[in-house]
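Issue 218. Parser rejects a valid record. Input:
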Amino acid sequence: MKSKDYEVIVVGAGHAGCEAAYACAKKGHKTALITLNINNIADMPCNPSIGGTAKGIIVREIDALGGIMGKAADQAHFQIKMLNISKGPAVRSLRAQMDKIVYPQKILNMLNELPTLDLIEGEVIDLIIKDKIVCGIKLSDNQQIKAKIVILTTGTYLKSSILVGDQKTPGGPHGEKTASALSNNLNRYGHSIIRLKTGTPPRIKKDSIDFSSLIIEEGDQKHYTFSHDSKPYYDISNQQKCYLLYTTEKTHQIIKDNLDKSSMYGGFVEGVGPRYCPSIEDKIVRFSTKERHQLFLEPESLFYDEWYLQGFSTSMPTDVQELMVHSLPGLEKAKITKYAYAIEYDAIDPLQIKPSLESKVLANLYTAGQINGTSGYEEAAAQGLVAGINAALSLEAREPIIIKRNQGYIGVLIDDLVTKGTKEPYRMLTSRAEFRLILRHDNADLRLREIGYQVGLISEEQYQVLINKKNHIDSLINHLKTTNLSTTSETKKLFKINKIEYPSRGTTLYQLLKRPDISINFINQFSNLDESENILEVVEVLIKYEGYIKKADKEIEKLLKLEAKQIPADIDYNKIKSIATEACQKLNKIRPETIAQASRISGINPADIAVLAIYLRKEYGKDE
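Output the parser choked on:
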């Protein structure tokens, strides 16, 4: 094949690569998406689900910016539910079980619709570099392809190894070929390489499971979508059942008796595993006083009969895995179709990337996903989308988008990576976001869709829907503020039926809604609000949590002032007197772009920030 030049080359076609390639090609840039195996585009080697705590909000944010994960998920799931529905709005998130066959096909269909995107099969072994500027890639067949920008989204394939017991085999997920040369070359060019680990549980043949002893987990009896543009594609009453089960005392004993045979505890693993998604043997050791651990059985696809044993990731030998699985209720006679394994792989130190996701080491090189030290499809897709957007903006001579911590979980994710770094696979949690009441499921479009419109991934029609939504929210809030509670007998009767105390004096519907026992749906029963459920949900949160939101807004205002204080790129921190040695070293390494980012670096104290601010004011005329 005769090679041709591209504006953008995306290396790796997992969730990060698909979003990056889509963003660049959607904006009309000539893009190549290169993968080891085209059949594995948007693959789900681990749990075929999208969303989860905080992750579901990330998917909503991806959609708000113009990405494709949410749209594909809406068309490919067979069960969906809202997590933490009994808790406050800050922690509610969608999670849906995907069909492992359908989801990648939906993504591939969207990519194939883009005339400026080429899909290429091959192994990238090196970069073409001139004067520390990336100019293209080299393939294992000696072919060279030039490009103005390269985005690396290599997932778990960089010098990866599969571990089962004491067996260590070079390879990627599904036994695929590993990318053995690229990480060595990245290291040679100046990138620090870290070694990470993740894993996956065994798969179980459906007809060998005794479902009668398991607890049924149903989907929600309410329609949901990840995308702000989708209408529900599914029959709410015909969702696939999943099942809950627990480990037993026998399970724990088997693991304890064979702990030295585990890849992790036998000393065969080099990489650091994810703290918040540990293997089952790690759970038994770290939480030794816990009598049992929660597991879920979930189908991988409606087209075949393999079920996923969520929460049972392990690197035990296959014979021990048999004993472990058969110790579980309902799985006494289970047939394992695929054994669990751990996989370790190379990643780069994320402190070497900018908030735009461009490398600090090589110009015109962007990285996204697990190569940056993250774990999870959603985290990868979010980075891929941002890297793709910023690559396109660079080609257009426009400033990159930097999503702030108060604007989205995507902003928190990227800022944590480039400011704090990571020693283990990073997973997004609601606790990582200081403004999580602002970063909700219901308002992702209100927070980020305008940015998507500005960068060219959101159409005029989609943008007008957003403007219309904002107008409806303002109109409803004004209506509630100016409308008094009706004193009719019908209204009083409704309060009595619902065992809600009727106000002793006149009040507006706005003030009434602030009461904890009053919902906006209850008000809608006697005062027809004539708005969609989505508008009602947003308005209810804004009114009920008004005080907390105002408090958060004040903190955000302080943050934005610090974010506005830019640090010159050529600053020499060694010239700043009275700053702590550790602070000086970290500032030199990370090179923060703003005072706010500097203040979030681990080991940087308020006193160091004060000294830095004074120095900037004195030497550069920056306000303190």
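Fixed in the parser; the record now loads. The CA atoms of residues 11 and 152 lie 5 Å apart.
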